[in-house]
Amino acid sequence: MKYATIFSFLAAPAFADCSVGTDYSEEIGQIVGQMQAAPDEGAARVLAGKMWEIWLDAPDELAQAMLDNGLALLQMGDHTSSRAVLGELIDYCPAYPEGYNQRAFAAFLQGDYAAALVDLDAAIALQPVHLGALTGKALTLISMERRDEAQEVLRAALAINPWLAERALLDEPDGTDI
Length: 178
Fold this sequence. Notes:
This protein is mainly alpha-helical. It is about 60% helix and about 0% strand.
């Protein structure tokens, strides 16, 4: 963990509680409705960007620092340290879906699909319309050669955003116009 110590002073004290953070449920609902009605991929991409802004807004300053550190480590290719830092974030903020989603991505990049799947399921349980977690789960299931399950998850993601690039992974369209 050569980079994880950069922000080791940020580790939450054992007695600290993660704050609730902003309730974005109304905004997310509006974005989902707009995505479902988006006229083209470009419009849907703008809306997806708005969702990512929401998901990457951690509940408090300490959680944001942990997330930013985990993402920086991920970007540097230090997946092991990233997973460790994101694990600390999850311990501190167990109700924050993006901690699980990003740790799943690090696990996926390491080829640890079983661990990725556990975290993706946790993220989806906390935020059922988390497109990153849903598409990540579909890709993870494909990597695990569980294509039928992946198709179900992919269809759930496409019900939220019919313009996802991952729609190309559908074995056969379900008859709806995407």
